[in-house]
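> call design_seq(struct)
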């Protein structure tokens, strides 16, 4: 039975991606709720039936009281046994069936699947964002919103059918039932309902913003704490333990104050609700007794009115909490939309084609990029890299070398100019096909908290075990991988590397990253300080492997250790975002320019960072 309800909706059903999802709460929720439209209708129907059943039972209780007050004890059963039997069957069979269907739809059909669909789509949407988008926020805050918003959205939907639909049907049914006995009996209920509506409106108007503020504060706290954990080496290295505690305390205290303001609203609401419910009991109960004393209401009508008043008295607290939970959940979802509903800032152009790399020529034409500022970055780069050419990029830190690489990978959109690969403008080809054609080994090789095998196969998920091992050997990684062991006893290629590869040394991480790129076997290769974390012996061994890997590929290599670039076909010197020199190693040394200064100033093979007069 449970499986039937659980399979009513497929949370992973295909859907059209949107580069600009709705940023308003209601349109966004409606968009995500489309797969649930039919099950929502069923939920509304069965929730209404559940309420009507309860109203019907209270009505029948009044009828039983009236029958008992006039019937003789000896003739009651012979006269009403069939009616009572049918009621018993209804209570033992029909009512449980309605309740089972209601619970199955809500608890098994909607709750598990709605949150899953929301989280699945939200995660897919966020992963489509650019590298620059992620660099502008805390990873912890993004993750917190992805984790908080889906269950909150599921809770909001649940409250609509479990509480609001039920309560609406119940109140309407109660008014009809009391009016059926005597119209005057409905007057206290209608007056109470008006006051209850005012209280509800005040609560809702205040709870939504307060909940959003609390959610914002929690996300900020999570971001700060995760940031400390992610950078625990720096925290320990610089003895910044107390500073990090104070940094987190500021956010935690802000969260406490915001949450305290939110709870004041709930306390005020509960006090007002207690007064209103007392007035309901006095009004309905007292009025029904007055009508009975005047002969205008039966004992059964009084009993039904009192039962309804008591039931509403118990239900209003639950309903108000359900409503506040509903709007609190919406506040959390709305805060999550600040991340989830962000427009995708870097998209494929309409009709983008797949990149087809033939020869592997790369052309930079009047390229300029300043990250939205008026300074720094690149300014008017014109550079052509011939098919199969090996080019080294040299320059001081901040000269624009890594920016050039990021723009070639289209991690950012170019502000001015264009980049072509074999005559194809990278702005008009798909990002996936572009990046599959380019292998990158960066200075900081960040690994996934998974097995070594998973990390290497990131380069080519279809590679065989022997191909993966061969790539590891070429990267001088196979031997240390065989000796790897994690805290759970996994060894070799199955050992997990920890968050960002923290269980491995910098050199080991870089060699695994090299193995990954070797396995990818892309026609264009980018090396951004690819051997910077290696010792001299390992670097020499890997350099030999790299020369073999470079064969037949177009290569761009960045290095401060100029000895690693001496054998390149051409070396390009970048200064303040412009190409100032280019040529092979011998030509540039003979020229006596900036490259020669770098070479002569090196200590241990690194460029001096002091300002030099050319």
């Amino acid at each position: 039975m449970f499986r039937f309800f659980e399979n009513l909706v497929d949370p992973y059903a295909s859907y059209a991606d949107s580069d600009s999802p709705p940023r308003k709460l209601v349109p966004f929720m409606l968009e995500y709720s489309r797969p649930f439209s039919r099950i929502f209708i069923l939920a509304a129907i069965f929730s209404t039936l559940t309420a009507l059943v309860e109203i019907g039972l209270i009505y029948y209780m009044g009828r039983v009281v009236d029958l008992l007050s006039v019937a003789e004890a000896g003739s009651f059963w012979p006269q009403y046994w069939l009616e009572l039997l049918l009621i018993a069957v209804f209570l033992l069979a029909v009512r449980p069936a309605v309740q089972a269907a209601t619970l199955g739809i809500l608890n098994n059909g909607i709750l598990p699947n709605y949150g899953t669909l929301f989280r699945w789509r939200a995660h897919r949407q966020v992963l489509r964002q650019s590298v620059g988008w992620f660099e502008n926020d805390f990873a912890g805050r993004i993750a917190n919103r992805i984790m908080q918003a889906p269950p909150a959205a599921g809770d909001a939907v649940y409250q609509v059918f479990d509480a609001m639909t039920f309560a609406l049907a119940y109140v309407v049914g109660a008014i009809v039932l009391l009016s059926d006995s005597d119209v005057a009996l409905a007057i206290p209920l209608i007056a109470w309902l008006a006051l209850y509506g005012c209280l509800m409106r005040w609560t809702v108007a205040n709870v939504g913003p307060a909940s959003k503020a609390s959610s914002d504060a929690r996300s900020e706290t999570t971001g700060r704490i995760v940031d400390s954990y992610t950078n625990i080496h720096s925290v320990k290295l610089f003895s910044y333990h107390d500073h990090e505690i104070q940094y987190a305390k500021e956010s935690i205290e802000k969260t406490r104050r915001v949450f305290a303001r939110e709870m004041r609203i709930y306390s005020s609401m509960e006090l007002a609700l207690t007064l209103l419910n007392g007035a309901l009991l006095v009004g309905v109960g007292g009025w029904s007794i007055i009508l009975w004393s005047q002969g205008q209401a039966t004992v059964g009508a009084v009993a039904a009115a009192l039962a309804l008043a008591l039931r509403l008295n118990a239900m209003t607290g639950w309903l108000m909490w359900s409503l506040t939970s509903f709007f609190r959940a919406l506040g959390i979802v709305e805060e999550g939309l600040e991340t989830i509903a962000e427009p995708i800032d870097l998209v494929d152009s309409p009709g983008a084609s797949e990149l087809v790399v033939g020869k592997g020529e790369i052309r930079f034409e009047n390229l300029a990029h300043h990250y939205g500022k008026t300074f720094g970055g690149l300014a008017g780069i014109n550079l052509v890299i011939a098919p199969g050419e090996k080019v080294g990029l040299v320059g001081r830190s901040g000269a624009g070398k890594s920016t050039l690489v990021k723009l070639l990978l289209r991690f950012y959109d170019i502000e001015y100019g264009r980049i072509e690969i074999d005559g194809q403008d990278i702005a008009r080809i798909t990002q996936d096909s572009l990046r599959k054609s380019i292998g990158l080994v960066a200075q900081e090789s960040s690994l996934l908290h998974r097995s070594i095998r998973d990390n290497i196969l990131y380069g080519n998920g279809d590679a065989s075990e022997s191909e993966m091992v061969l790539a590891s050997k070429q990267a001088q990684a196979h031997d240390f991988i065989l000796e790897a062991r994690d805290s759970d006893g996994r060894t070799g290629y199955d050992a997990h590397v920890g968050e960002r590869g923290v269980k491995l040394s910098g050199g080991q991480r870089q060699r695994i990253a090299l193995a990954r790129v070797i396995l990818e076997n892309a026609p264009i290769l980018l090396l951004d300080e690819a051997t910077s974390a290696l010792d001299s012996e390992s670097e020499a061994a890997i350099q030999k492997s790299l020369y073999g890997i470079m064969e037949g590929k177009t290569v761009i290599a960045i290095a401060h250790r100029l000895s690693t670039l001496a054998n390149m076909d051409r070396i390009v010197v970048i200064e303040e975002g412009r190409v100032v020199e280019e040529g092979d190693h011998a030509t540039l040394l003979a020229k006596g320019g900036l490259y020669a200064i770098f070479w002569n100033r090196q200590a241990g093979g690194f460029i001096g960072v002091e300002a030099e007069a050319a």
